[in-house]
Sequence to fold (913 residues):
Amino acid sequence: MSASPANPPEQNTAEGATLLEVRNVSKRFGATEVLKNISLNIACGEFLTLLGESGSGKTTLLRLIAGFEQATSGEIWMGGERLDVLPPYKRPVNTVFQNYALFPHLSARDNIAYGLRVKRTPVSEISGRVEEALSMVKMQGFAASRPSQLSGGQQQRIALARALVNRPQLLLLDEPLSALDANLRKQMQSELKALQREIGITFLFVTHDQEEAMALSDRIALLRDGALEQVAAPRETYARPATAYAAQFIGQTNLLHGEIRGSIATCGALRWPCEEADGSVVFSLRPEAIRLSADGKRQTNEVRFRAAVRQQLYGGSTELLEVDCGKGQTLRVRVPACGRLTGEHDFVFSISDAVRVQE
Amino acid sequence: MYSRTYKSLVSIPPLFWVGAFLLLPYALMFAHSLWTVREGVIVHQWNWENYKTLFTNPLYAEVLFRTMRIAASVTLCSLLLGYPLAYYLAFHAGARKELLYQLVIVPLWVSYLVRGYAWKTILGSDGVLNAFLQYLHLTHEPVGFFLYSPFAVVLMLTHIYTPFVFLPIYAALEHIPRPLLEASQDLGAGSLQTFWRVILPLSMPGLLAGATFAFVLSLGDFLAPLLVGGPSGTMIANVVQSLFGAAFDWPLGAAISMGILVITISLLFLGEFLEKRWAFK
Amino acid sequence: MKAQLTTRRSPILAIYAALVFAFIYFPIVVLVVYSFNRDGVGGFPPRHLTLSWYTQLFADSSVWDSVLNSLLVATGGVALSLMLGLLAALALDRASFPGKVLFRRLVLLPLILPGIITGLSLLMFAVFAGVQLSLLTVFLGHGTALISVATTELFAGLQKLDRAQEEASLDLGATPWQTFWRITLPNLKLSLIAAGLLIFTLSMDEIAVTFFLIGRDNTLPLEIWGRLRRGITPEINAVSTLIFAVSVALIVIWYHLRSRSLDAPARELFEQP
Fold:
């Protein structure tokens, strides 16, 4: 399932070269198989997100790369060196932990200096680098504070600075924003993205929040039950989901179950030409791909249908409709805000927006 | 995440120590209990004679029963004092709770011997209590039965174990989610019903832990009888102590010790079993 | 207070609680008061307050020798049991080996076992090993019996320690050894102090185990014990009062340390507007 990046991210060094290679990694805890034969490459300077529900194995994969767990089988390579045989403290990666794991007995400054001190960095160099890291996360005024004196967002920044000061080749972030409230979270997302661009360090980011993944990532690796479902850029994943699960997990969608016979696809009340082999199929059709057809006319490559509006949920700039196309088929349709709708209306969508997905 | 070296480094020293200084001594005690003494010398011949003596000589059963009775009385009295105190602190003490809690803890740190000695000075025939009673003209000559009686042993041990019993009960009461009590009242239960149906069952593990502790430690006590017990307050551990001292019969003493050990461990397991049955998550 | 709803006035319960407190403190008060009574222990009411029993005590060299012995044993006992208890707690928390459950129960056994059993089994061991009874055997006995206290306290401390702390340290390049000194131990500081103070007090006070392991040199409790057999004098009240005072001082220190290290940041937050 490994994929090379569709769009190499912008960066200053070693553009597009592979930094980390996960080769056929599996992990069992007793009888449960948490990761099933995962292969994944991460390019230099890339922002890659591991996205999945809880229990999908995303955190386990991160911990394998950090060195806190040992793979049952498979290998992890980084820059021509085997990584998975090294203890965590010899790996050129650093982690931002889910609940930050700041050392409560050390000040913010000492937390940040920790990695440099244990590696016997010259004292003269430490203070400069700590200041630099503090200013990178805009926390210069808080060097002397203990973690318990800092707010969640401030702790988050210190945790980030503590990892970055070591200049890791790869930064692992384990749901770093999940403990923050919604507003702060949005703000931290944009700062994180800007920071990553600026310093050019490769980020491997773990989250269960698909919106966050879409906003931040160069590529998203979607995990499901320990296996990779799809690895692609956010736009690609949204527009061309590989599977029904991917289509549902990332954004909202209508899954149309039906069959192809004689180059015609039939899904409930809807039919359109489709040049594929006969058999049963599933299509994903995003609610916003369907629109109201004011004049009832239809272009070529479009499907038109008449449906009754059953429910209307107002969402400010848009409205989400639940429409009944007959034969027990309901679809969700997202249209620009349009005022109350009742009764039957004509809707259209373009055939290319119905994306065939694997079950 | 911890390497094999790390795990060995932390495990081996304590394992060795426990093997050498706990397991081996217990094994030696068991070995002694199977030997005998002849003409003041321990004969290393394996036999069950000591255990037979224990089961056939009614004297030992009598002392054991007295010991059990004293331990049970201590446990009961400590519960009767400790539970209401814990209940008061947990639910009624308000802002003074923390201070009162620490006031219960302080005596825990105060020497066992000091507290035993204090009771001796109070209960003695020319002690404080008798002097006080004569001062009030309630009695005209010293009352002798305060000191050197099973009563004195129970009193002293109750004094020592009440804070021990209090602690786990208080912890259990503090952990009862307050909304449960409100829910009980909301559903129409009065204070007394709430206590019987909600608070007491939920504090049962703490109560059992405290009771086990008080009973087991009273059972093996030999200092309180020496201090305030007198001949009528002699307990099983005093028999052991004299067998290891003046009577010089280590094997028989070891056999009784094994008996105390077995009873203690069985009680601990029983206590643990009951606590688990009563534990709610 | 969070218990506002259930806090109701209950005079009977309050009186009962007051009586229990009176019962707990009555002997201690009597003890202290009569240590100042010129006419000795007993008699009511106490009259003619005097410090002479204390002066007599301070001149009594055998008491002070025994205090020194007790301090020696307790200090050694604290060091030994904290070291082994820390390792045992780490082993219980992180290692797995055959017989771990048995090991845990054995370590904790002296905590709940009557002192006479621990004392006698160690006595037999000393005789078996051909070791003369002395302060050394008392020290080994205390150390062994009190590992249980150290293990319980430190294991509880380890359970509270977030494993991610140590992972973060390793992740930042610290070796396991560095991590132990820089993260694990500082996080256990409070448990170590608490356990140390508790073990120190228990050792200073220990009599049941010491009873069987003592050689020629007495510890303080055994010195008192020996004097009790010769009869009671206010001098014993005086030394008991001092023991009580030291115990209370240790608790106060302990609470002070605990509240300072736990609440300091929070308090500063409240005090700074």
